[in-house]
Amino acid sequence: MSETATANILVELLPQKAKPKAGKLFINGEFVDSASGKVFNTYNPATGAILASIAEADAGDVDRAVKAARAAFAEGSPWRKMNSSDRTRCLLKLADLIRANAEEISELETLDTGKPIFESSKFDIPQAAECFEYYAGWVTKITGETIPVSKGGDAFAYTLREPIGVCGQIIPWNFPLQMLSWKVAPALACGNTIVLKPAEQTPLTALRFAELTLEAGIPPGVFNVVTGSGATGAALVEHEDVDKIAFTGSVETGKDIMRTASKSLKRISLELGGKSPNIVFADSDIETAAKYALGGIFFNQGEMCTAGSRIFIEESGYDQFMSVITSRAQKMVAGDPLHPKTRLGALISEEHLNSVLNYVDIGKKEGAIVTTGGERIGTKGYFMKPTVLEGVTNNMRVAQEEIFGPVASVIRFKDIEEAMREANNSQFGLAAAIWTRDIKKAHKLARSIKAGTVWINTISTTDNALPFGGFKSSGFGRELGKAAIDLYTETKSVWVDLN
Ligand code: NAP
Ligand code: MG
Hints:
Elements: H1 3-10, E1 25-27, E2 30-32, E3 39-43, E4 50-55, H2 59-73, H3 78-81, H4 84-100, H5 102-113, H6 117-138, E5 155-163, E6 166-170, H7 176-189, E7 193-197, H8 204-215, E8 223-225, H9 230-238, E9 244-248, H10 251-264, E10 267-271, E11 277-280, H11 286-298, E12 310-314, H12 318-331, H13 350-366, E13 369-372, E14 376-377, E15 383-384, E16 387-390, H14 397-400, E17 407-413, H15 416-424, E18 428-429, E19 431-435, H16 439-448, E20 453-456, E21 471-472, E22 475-476, H17 483-487, E23 489-497
Parallel strand pairs: 6-7, 6-9, 7-8, 9-10, 11-12, 11-19, 12-17, 16-17, 19-20
Antiparallel strand pairs: 1-2, 3-4, 5-23, 10-22, 13-16, 14-15, 18-21
Helix pairs in contact: 2-9, 4-6, 4-8, 5-6, 6-7, 11-12
The chain binds NADP nicotinamide-adenine-dinucleotide phosphate and magnesium ion.
């Protein structure tokens, strides 16, 4: 039996509504075949089984999608003529539809990613709905300014905020619908049109979302989905009629995108990886810090760009912290991601699991000690024990390279100067957490840490209102909050001579 035939049978496993769109691209408001007819499979990481066959878009398909997005952006198109109240209602409707279908979408997300249904249903999917609600509120508040000019005699000058145009959006596999919402919601709020490229491992919720855009009254062509591999993403970046690329993913792909985008000088924003320090001072509530540190590194199997993967602990609090984190990590049991009690799911693929396990070996060779975990669980699905490495120094590869899995590297420090220096000794700068009861120490460190987000006495929280993004190799541009309105608009200055 061919792989495609197998996929067509296993597609029966998908929730009812997910079936029609599996194997199709979404272009100009319709589910269509790719021109080549080529398909690839998406798998369930908890079992290794094929979930569905997915259409593979080539450069010609990408061109069709871009043309649809361009036509939908043309002056006088239904989308450009839509007033801001109606656009607000479209975004609110999308949020409502995500909520109304939350159970099915959460199940789809869990099947495709291997993450616990607890996480999809309590975090990812509700947060995606909230993101559309948040940006629905922005639609009627995107304004320019009137600005007094100092030259040219009497003049009236003002700015307009205009949509950029056709936005290519490329997202990773770790938080598929949530990453979609962070990009699609502000882009639509500002009046852009979109061609979205989901990760090849997790295309299902983006395709389901595409159906919802029609129900929400988003005109055909405004939102398009091209499924495929990295080559599909590259074709989108290459396309001369794409005005902006918003990307979340790895540093290497980010650099590729920057090089290619320079040819047409399209706008880019890059959310890349991290190796975020989680700094625990001895004067903090160590028990709480250790409990939160677990979530900081093991939530979503550690497949998080903001994972608090470098845990710095001040000497005198070290033993207490280690005993809490080690014993709690040992109690974390991986299980069927669809079971509501499961808190630790499967990693995205066998290849990725092997890469994470390889890092454990690298750490051991560098002199780190595995206090708990370090092994695969079973042979079915891609499960791994939560792992804590101690005896790590900040120059080791396990402290410098992004592992993107359930592996915490624990490093001791003596004083605030050492913590500050070592926390910043990294190519990354996405996030950092600080645990202390000393308010001066906390704020001093928050200022000196080179990271886009600093948490004090908490970790891993984001909010739709708060800008999110990286320093250094973690990328540039800020998503969420008002910052994303800047990301998806051009500023135009208009000068009126009144002399
Ligand atoms: P990735 O390989 O860079 O892939 C991300 C997306 O880019 C996928 O849709 C991928 O398609 C596509 N892509 C691959 N090569 C491309 C190319 N040459 N041109 C255009 N698009 C291309 O990253 P990943 O392995 O999927 O995701 C894990 C990485 O993402 C980690 O390093 C993590 O830190 C980072 N991440 C960062 C954030 C953040 O907000 N900063 C959030 C989540 C993840 P395929 O899937 O088909 O290869
Ligand atoms: Mg999958």
